[in-house]
User: What shape does this take?
Amino acid sequence: MQATEKLSASFRDPSGFLFTRNGILYRQINRAYEKDYARLMDSGLYDKLVKAGLLIPHVETDQAPADAQRDAALKVIQPERVPFISYPYEWSFSQLKDAALATLSIHKRAIKMGMSLKDASAYNIQFVRGKATLIDTLSFEVYKEGEPWVAYRQFCQHFLAPLALMAYCDVRLSQLMRVYIDGVPLDLASKLLPAKTKFNFGLLTHIHVHASAQKRYSDKAIEPRKGAMRVNQQAMIGLIESLEAAIKKLTWKPAGTEWGDYYENTNYTDGAFEHKKQLVREWSLEKKPALVWDLGGNTGVFSREAASSDAFTVSFDIDPAAVEQNYRTVKSKKEQNILPLVLDLTNPSPSLGWDHTERDSFGARGPVDMALALAVIHHLAISNNVPLSQLASFFAARSKWLVIEFVPKSDSQVQKLLTSREDIFPNYTREGFEKAFSTCFTIHKSEVVRDSERILYLMETR
Amino acid sequence: MHFTPPPYLDPGSGSFIIQILIAALLGLGVALRASWSKIKGYFGVKPKAEEEDNDSADASD
Assistant: This one.
């Protein structure tokens, strides 16, 4: 008996769904989608998009369909597996922008080849080999000239509205995506955006006027097939290009946030910095992890040391400016195995959506082979008051190997944290740290970082 | 009896209507651009490289 498990994120789509069998990810395509799938594959659109890195490649298999839906099944395909699934509320500004442009580019190419993108969900885009890529092979339908774009509203809510809010109001408004799972409501975006955005043609039409039209027609049914209710192909291209122009115009420059210039402000020497890099590189090469999480990765300097062992490294940081900078480096150096993401370790992404199963929590997307926790423990233990024993069990649940840096109280960065508060942390010492972590970990190595009082450990979960 | 669904059930109507209006306007622009490049072509100005090839660069740059 094979262990088959239907994945809950794809339950809405009658065209098919994802399931895993013996650890391998498959997508069942239902008979209802037969015509559209044939057009995708036969028109050359699939090849074109895969070649451009815009669509996830797949192979057709002779696997039996998932049991529950056997009668409806047409085919079972095996898509390439994405190393780490991330969500729009974890992306930096440019990541969401690139995902938006990739979506429009796919829709435009599809229209020119007789198909249309029926779904413009930001959750259908993932970062694969450093590039925004559509992972839902069943998002296409045969294009009927004259039909409006059914995903227009969704595109505006999932991409244009949050990007405009990030660019014009505050980059932290990306977090609205965490509250509104189907994208930022346009009336809310219209209310929050400054008045000057009404002088921007793209934002005026696709957000402000769009929001008023939604309100005006909210209780009226329409018949889109009537003569005047048509969007011919030329008009469709015009619409896509207008959205493209609106998205491209939106910019955000990382500045003034918490740690954007962190590495220029460190309290340790070049020698210490290099020594730390060398230890991370050596230990990654030795343990050969497939997947690494760098927790508190800043702009990704140490993530890159771990990634040099060929590990796929997810570089999390709380600061959107650092993550933006990290992503720009990924793009300019065409790095394929680093994924920068925004994450607050003290309040990580929860499970979201229907029955809490549509989007996985941060924890549910682990555990991984190796985690890095460099210069982060004092923030968690002292700024956030988490007892060392709880930190140990938190890390032990996340990964097999842990590379962790202990920053003692005498360190000036810790002193800074303690200036504004009473020192209620008698156990925050090297001995206390080792004792607390030994309950969950075997400490294999510990090295004092050159020219500093900091200690780097390599530990294995018990 | 006439039944009007509550607003939260169908937020799509307004989106469809506004899309049709905007697209009609923008479609004109695309048509004008196409004729303009034909006119330019008549006078020997070469058209720009097929935009399609730049799309992937857009998405990744």
Observations:
- Residues 12-42 of chain B form the longest helix (31 residues).
- The interface with chain A takes residues 4-7, 10-20, 22-31, 34, 52, 55-56, 58-61 of chain B (CB under 8 Å).
- Residues 1-11, 50-61 of chain B have pLDDT under 50 and may be disordered.
